[in-house]
Amino acid sequence: EVYFKNLSKQKQKKVMEKNGNSHKLRVCVATCNRADYSKLAPIMFGIKAEPQCFELDVVVLGSHLIDDYGNTYRMIEQDDFDIHTRLHTIVRGEDEAAMVESVGLALVKLPDVLNRLKPDIMIVHGDRFDALALATSAALMNIRILHIEGGEVSGTIDDSIRHAITKLAHYHVCCTRSAEQHLIAMCEDHDRILLAGCPSYDKLLSAKNKDYMSIIRMWLGEDVKTRDYIVALQHPVTTDIKHSIKMFELTLDALISFNKRTLVLFPNVDAGDKEMVRVMRKKGIEHHPNFRAVKHVPFDQFIQLVAHAGCMIGNSSCGVREVGAFGTPVINLGTRQTGRETGENVLHVRDADTQDKILHALQLQFGKQYPCSKIYGDGNAVPRILKFLKSIDLKEPLQKKFCFPPVKDNISQDIDHILETQSALAVDLGGTNLRVAIVSMKGEIVKKYTQLNPKTYEDRLELILKMCVEAASEAVNVNCRILGVGISTGGRVNPREGIVLHSTKLIQEWSSVDLRTPISDALHLPVWVDNDGNCAALAERKFGHGKGIENFVTLITGTGIGGGIVHQHELIHGSSFCAAELGHIVVSLDGPECLCGSQGCIEAYASGIALQREAKKLHDDDLLLVEGMSMKKEEVVSAAHLIQAAKLGNTKAESILRTAGTALGLGVVNILHTVNPSLVILSGVLANHYVNAVKDVINRQALSSAKTVDVVVSNLADPALLGAASLVLDYTTRRIY
């Protein structure tokens, strides 16, 4: 684990010496409801598995002990945890006052429990009012607090409670880098913050229940199929109860109209929950043939239900956090989760004020499959948390210290705590080779793997997955955190769906291929796919001459001719994803035949294949070789031989290259007169041989207003891989949550 790479061993050794080798850390875990138990249970299992290091005390309170909410304390017992104390702390009521009274009742009962347990540290989760009572009691009784999921931003009163607990807590475990930065901005000590990921993801990313159909049938009926049902989970918004009740009514009306089997879970304990239950009963949800209304679903089974659902709808944090791990479509209603970081599977309906608006969202989302998202974790949170717990020195002063601004200076000086370098897996599918690389945010190729591109679809996909898995494993060793996978491939690509629509002749069995789904499912990472020409343009925009340029064109001059067009800082794909097929601009009506089937294309004159064709003709007529050149008998004639002959004074070769350069230049002039870029970037192995010819043609043929364009040769060593990486890095860094 990178966080502890330079610090943990020495610190743990000192801690053991100070605390005494025989001392066990006494940890109290307090759980209030079914939602926080799903996050705390993996940590509890980890603590229980190391009895030589920890003693675990479990305190249960809140809605766990209420029949209306399923008596969910039973699932803690089923997990074989000994419950030390049960505290009935919920005051029944339907308004905000009941929540305040519940906090007060918990504050009255907790001191006696904590006096008896005398824990070294208490683990508190989240942003519920019960958790605020726990943190307040522990802080006032000089008990160290470890807060899980601090620093996040959602909506309603939860934000205020979460941040209040942060100020009371001594140690913080956060799930995302943004949350970590929020904690630092709130003046929390960076040494006491651990970016671990969400503990529930440890179970989510390893959940492989082959018998998920029996779970689906048990909760939704025998006739239900995967991706053909909905999971609904909606809670009252305590800062606007009346509006949230109205929104719940509209949601149920939309679900009834949508006419799909739906599992509806009862809301949690908040002001307004009873009114929501009355709305359900008023609309006959519990007896409707399309609905199943339940108080509680065990977390292991709930995982399978949302993983295979056609859609999840509501305002639960589960929808915007855990469900992203499966790529299940989510409709997030209202403001309860405003500010949460989300994957692209979440469609927000902020102001769900009509049934039609919600119904339209259902029609858009139902049945889709999105890339799996790992925003909230990579499946290794618990080991990190246990190491963090072991590093706590009980002899350190209990009084918190706050790190006031400037925050940025603290980060830059505290290099030991900077986590993995954000990086992308880049895949380049060429006609000959298949390459995979780890590319950093700065465009550095940290590690590169190359194999021959297999001839069949099955072998090719298998090799891609194998190389990506190998690269992802190596990323840990080279201190890189992989944000996603970007794929550059020849042919026409639908980047929205991640599908290769039609391949070039250079890559066989590569049409109508869904690349996103199998790779995302295998790696649990988001996947982006685009045409190799577009990727070259993206590489220039992020790392090359195109950086900061509003309008530019990239032309790849290699085996074929391709390119990409950036207009107003955005890549142009076109209505059917064939924009920027620059190699197939026709510059002669009776020119040589192109691989596309047409005649006179730029590619038929200036591509590596075209030059090789002309070189072979010269060689067959014994007109290629000149003094200073030699070829082995078995050596294949290539474009390189033509270029070498021209440099040595072969007039025939010079004429062919001059014609090729003119054809390319005429194509560039057509581009200038169509999209009027301020910059043309020539990329690829032939770029240096063409740049002067292109400039000459522009000076002769272009309109005077277009002659001011700059024509440069790319300085990027590997634009295909860098462009594939840009697909990932641009997306992850420009999103605003």
TrEMBL record:
Ranges for the UDP-N-acetylglucosamine 2-epimerase domain? 53-390
User: Which Pfam family, any one, appears in the UniProt record?
Assistant: ROK
Query: What main location does UniProt list?
Result: cytoplasm
Q: In which pathway does it act?
A: Amino-sugar metabolism; N-acetylneuraminate biosynthesis
- Subcellular locations according to the entry: Cytoplasm, Cytosol
User: Which residues of this UniProt protein bind Zn(2+)?
Assistant: 584, 594, 596, 601
Q: List the catalytic activities from the record.
A: UDP-N-acetyl-alpha-D-glucosamine + H2O = aldehydo-N-acetyl-D-mannosamine + UDP + H(+); an N-acyl-D-mannosamine + ATP = an N-acyl-D-mannosamine 6-phosphate + ADP + H(+)
Q: Which GO terms describe its molecular function?
A: ATP binding; hydrolase activity, hydrolyzing O-glycosyl compounds; metal ion binding; N-acylmannosamine kinase activity; UDP-N-acetylglucosamine 2-epimerase activity
**InterPro entries xref list:** ATPase_NBD (IPR043129), ROK (IPR000600), UDP-GlcNAc_Epase (IPR020004), UDP_GlcNAc_Epimerase_2_dom (IPR003331)
Instruction: Give the active-site positions.
Output: 532
Which GO terms of the cellular component aspect does the record hold? Answer: cytosol
Supply the EC number(s): 2.7.1.60, 3.2.1.183
Positions of an N-acyl-D-mannosamine binding: 492, 504, 532, 581, 584, 603
Report keywords, A-Z: Allosteric enzyme, ATP-binding, Cytoplasm, Hydrolase, Kinase, Metal-binding, Multifunctional enzyme, Nucleotide-binding, Phosphoprotein, Transferase, Zinc
Biological processes per GO annotation: UDP-N-acetylglucosamine metabolic process
Report the family membership. In the N-terminal section; belongs to the UDP-N-acetylglucosamine 2-epimerase family. In the C-terminal section; belongs to the ROK (NagC/XylR) family.
Subunit relationships: Homodimer. Homotetramer. Homohexamer. The hexameric form exhibits both enzyme activities, whereas the dimeric form only catalyzes the phosphorylation of N-acyl-D-mannosamine.
- Tell me what this protein is called: Bifunctional UDP-N-acetylglucosamine 2-epimerase/N-acetylmannosamine kinase
Q: Which organism is it from?
A: Smithornis capensis
